[in-house]
Amino acid sequence: MGKSRFEAFSDGVIAIIITIMVLEMKVPHGESLQALRPLIPVFLSYTLSFVYLGIYWNNHHHMLHTVHKVTGPMLWANLHLLFWLSLVPFATGWMGENHFSSMPSALYGVVLLMAAIAYYILQQLIIASQGPGSLLKKAVGGDWKGRASPFFYAIAIPMAFWSQWVSLGLYVAVALIWLVPDRRIEHVLASQEA
Amino acid sequence: MGKSRFEAFSDGVIAIIITIMVLEMKVPHGESLQALRPLIPVFLSYTLSFVYLGIYWNNHHHMLHTVHKVTGPMLWANLHLLFWLSLVPFATGWMGENHFSSMPSALYGVVLLMAAIAYYILQQLIIASQGPGSLLKKAVGGDWKGRASPFFYAIAIPMAFWSQWVSLGLYVAVALIWLVPDRRIEHVLASQEA
Amino acid sequence: MGKSRFEAFSDGVIAIIITIMVLEMKVPHGESLQALRPLIPVFLSYTLSFVYLGIYWNNHHHMLHTVHKVTGPMLWANLHLLFWLSLVPFATGWMGENHFSSMPSALYGVVLLMAAIAYYILQQLIIASQGPGSLLKKAVGGDWKGRASPFFYAIAIPMAFWSQWVSLGLYVAVALIWLVPDRRIEHVLASQEA
Amino acid sequence: MGKSRFEAFSDGVIAIIITIMVLEMKVPHGESLQALRPLIPVFLSYTLSFVYLGIYWNNHHHMLHTVHKVTGPMLWANLHLLFWLSLVPFATGWMGENHFSSMPSALYGVVLLMAAIAYYILQQLIIASQGPGSLLKKAVGGDWKGRASPFFYAIAIPMAFWSQWVSLGLYVAVALIWLVPDRRIEHVLASQEA
Fold first, then answer.
1. Radius of gyration, CA atoms only, chain C
2. Is it the case that residue C181 has pLDDT exceeding 60?
3. CA A5, CA A17: separation in Å to the nearest integer?
4. To the nearest whole angstrom, how far is the Cα of A19 from the nearest Cα of chain D?
5. pLDDT higher than 60, residue D66
6. Is the sign of the CA dihedral C38, C42, C48, C54 positive or negative?
7. Nearest CB to C89: which of D22, D47, D50?
8. What is the tens place of the pLDDT at every residue in A6-20?
9. How confident is the model at residue C166 (pLDDT cuts 50, 70, 90)?
């Protein structure tokens, strides 16, 4: 399978997820500023998820740079990742509409955790397909971000029942950690070319 | 007609179908885990349809690998396939919202059957256009999956009125059969290159 | 402006329009076949519009085959066409939900007429940009379909107030006329290459 | 990062935003012309936003013509722009549903202002990356449109509380100013090639 169609399909799905998420922010009926107030948590959760999907798109893109041939298992691992990402709008909407209450905040973490695991599986499949001298393995060698993220989510999920603000703080912290694009892969690619 | 625009359009439509389907999973009003309970069948039917659309995208992609020139009839056969696939979110939502009751489960099978027939028509058109030494014909020579699927759907549709769980079992079974990507075409293509 | 991004954007918008249109077919609450009955006109109008958008995508694609350089005015003429096409889901939904009553059937014709005019403007701009030996002009020389369609719509719109079935018959007739892909452009292109 | 995937993702998101915006124009229940009357402001605001998104797509496209290498900061500046553009359907729907009353008309201006600022940041990042002889800097040298637009929005926002028609007039005026595609970049590119 050609990489370009694989990339284009992933991009398409992520672009649609990121955009339809805004549909959860329903146009209010009143015309006053007050009418917007209940939407503040919805807007904040939308912003957080927008950043997360941007991070996924960005890292997905960098990871695929190291791939030359897409195999069947990679394709299904990728669809598995897209499946969990497709649940982000639902989890975001539920969390926002309920003003970050415990259960929705925990579910949001579950979806993030499952997406992180799906991403990890895809990454491992690519590394395995590249054999011993795997470019991607070299790039994510000291992948502390990739290893720390699921750990943070796993803490944040039960935390939501004690204080959802701690959970939210963890979700925001992980997003901030990732906001810096994954320069490791860029570096390895650059050194490869040199 | 160039193949790339044909592929891009099909990918776009399938990516949108797979993504808007999640909009049928409406954000519940309550914030408890109980509020999610009525969504379980909706979630399960969403998962099943996500896998089906992934299978269609995958097989569609493999099939087009053997195509060099897109003709007018192929284009309309492809739109016909996309038409039935575009009804999957509706059938999925109806089946999920009614907790897999008989009529919606039967309709789901009808949509799957029509999509399978549309796929078969497209496949036959491509084979016909390739003449006697058709690469695709060779690839799908012993196409027992392609032949068995409509047969399973045709059994599952009336079965839904006797026991919808048998129908659902058949839908899941067909999906599992197809989950393995269509290696036949890959093999023929590979042997062609060798 | 490169033609490929112009094509990709047009394809993207048409693919989204054709797919979100199905969202107007709301999942019914009942689980019986009776619950689907009110959806029959919605389904029929969806089918008609799906065919129309397929025709537009197809003809748009053929027309762009003759274009080498996209100019600013072409870009806006194209956005003008996409604007009217983007109103097709609304007109389709209104017509379907009101069981093809007069006013919605007339409005459907208005949207088709405006889209046809927008298409004509785009076509004329492309012909003008190609100068005296315009390939597109040669291709659509005896363009009776393109000339007849707006005429049919213009008749169908007032007819809707006398009998909407005549209007609908005209809409279906025009769609059938166009279902045959525009071989004229293919022929001129083919003879050009020969 | 390759420019093509960057462009394709931006195009995808803008194409989806421009298209889902029409979903805010809900199909009315009545079948008379009267039933459409409340939709007139929604339709007008939709038209205005469609033109604005067309302008952004067009200018974004021209700007990227001068870019050869997409950097991490550009990517995030671009996602920041897409974020504000993704709020256009919400602001449009709120303004249209409330018949252009003051607060929604002001919020519409805020979203336009934020998008304009995000566009400006992206532009400055690209100029900075191109170094002293920046092609884009040369192109937007006397960028009075880019400088005037945020100024107009900043006036229009408070004006909405005095008379929303003045605000709307300003929004329409800015759109008209931009409707002419950005020939400056085309000129510089053309002179570059000459």
1. 18
2. no
3. 18
4. 7
5. yes
6. negative
7. D22
8. 888 898 899 999 998
9. very high
Interface of A with B in 156-175 (CB under 8 A): none
Closest Cβ opposite residue C19 in set B75, B79, B86: B86
The answer, yes or no, to whether residue B109 has pLDDT greater than 80, is: yes
Set of chain C residues whose Cβ sits within 8 Å of the Cβ of B39: none
pLDDT confidence band for A24 (50 / 70 / 90): confident
Interface pTM (ipTM) of the complex?
A: 0.86
**pTM for the full model?**
0.89
* Chain C nearest CA to B80, separation (Å): 9
Q: Taking CB atoms and an 8 Å cut-off, how many pairs form between chains B and C?
A: 65
pLDDT digits (tens, 9 = 90+) for A123-180: 889 888 887 777 777 767 666 777 788 899 999 999 999 888 999 999 999 998 888 6
Contact C61 B24 (CB under 8 A): no
Chain B touched by A44 (CB under 8 Å): no
Count of C-beta atoms within a 10 Å radius of residue B149 = 24
What value does the mean pLDDT take over residues C149-176?
91
Q: Pull the structure tokens for residue B89.
A: 């979110």
Please identify which residue in the block is written with the tokens 């590394």.
A127
For D180, the closest chain C residue by CA position comes to C72
Neighboring chain B residues of A115 at a CB cutoff of 8 Å: none
Handedness of CA D58, D60, D64, D70 (dihedral sign): negative
- Most D CBs within 10 A among C21, C70, C74, C90, hence the mutation to make, goes to C90
**Between chains, do A12 and B7 touch, taking CB under 8 Å as contact?**
no
Q: What is the nearest CA distance from B38 to chain A, expressed in angstroms?
A: 14
Residue B70 DSSP label: -
Mean pLDDT is lowest, of B56-60, B120-124, C66-70, D10-14, for C66-70
- The DSSP secondary-structure symbol of D140 reads T
* Model pLDDT for residues D121-177, shown as the tens digit of each residue: 998 898 888 877 777 777 676 667 777 888 999 999 999 998 889 999 999 999 988
Interface of A with B in 53-72 (CB under 8 A): 72
**Residue at token pair 């020579």:** B141
Residues of D in contact with A67 (CB under 8 A): none
How far apart are alpha carbons A78 and C110 in whole angstroms? 44
Indicate the range of B5-19, B57-71, B105-119 predicted with least confidence: B57-71
**What single-letter DSSP state applies at residue A180?**
S
Closest CA to A18 of A43, A52, A61, A44: A52
Neighbours of chain A (3+ CB pairs under 8 A): B, D
Interface contact flag, B32 A103, Cβ < 8 Å = yes
Q: Which residue of chain A is at minimal alpha-carbon distance from D105?
A: A31
CA D78 to CA D74: how far, in whole Å?
Answer: 6
| Cβ atoms D74, D137 nearer than 8 A | no
The nearest alpha carbon in chain C to D186 belongs to C1
Q: Sort out which chain D residues have CB atoms less than 8 A from A96's CB and list them.
A: none
* Secondary structure of chain C in HEC code, one letter for each residue: CCHHHHHHHHHHHHHHHHHHHHHHCCCCCCCCHHHHHHHHHHHHHHHHHHHHHHHHHHHHHHHHHCCCCCCHHHHHHHHHHHHHHHCHHHHHHHHHHCCCCHHHHHHHHHHHHHHHHHHHHHHHHHHHHCCCCCHHHHHCCCCHHHHHHHHHHHHHHHHCCCCHHHHHHHHHHHHHHHHCCCHHHHHHHHHHHC
C87 token code pair: 């109103």
> What was the pLDDT predicted at A189?
60
> B95, B45 in Cβ contact below 8 A?
yes
For residues A111 and A49, give the distance between their C-alpha atoms in angstroms, rounded to a whole number: 11
pLDDT band at D59 (very low <50, low <70, confident <90, very high): confident
Chain-chain contact of C22 with B94 (C-beta, under 8 angstroms): no
Whether the Cβ atoms of residue A56 and residue A115 lie closer than 8 Å to each other: yes
Q: What is the pLDDT of residue A93?
A: 92
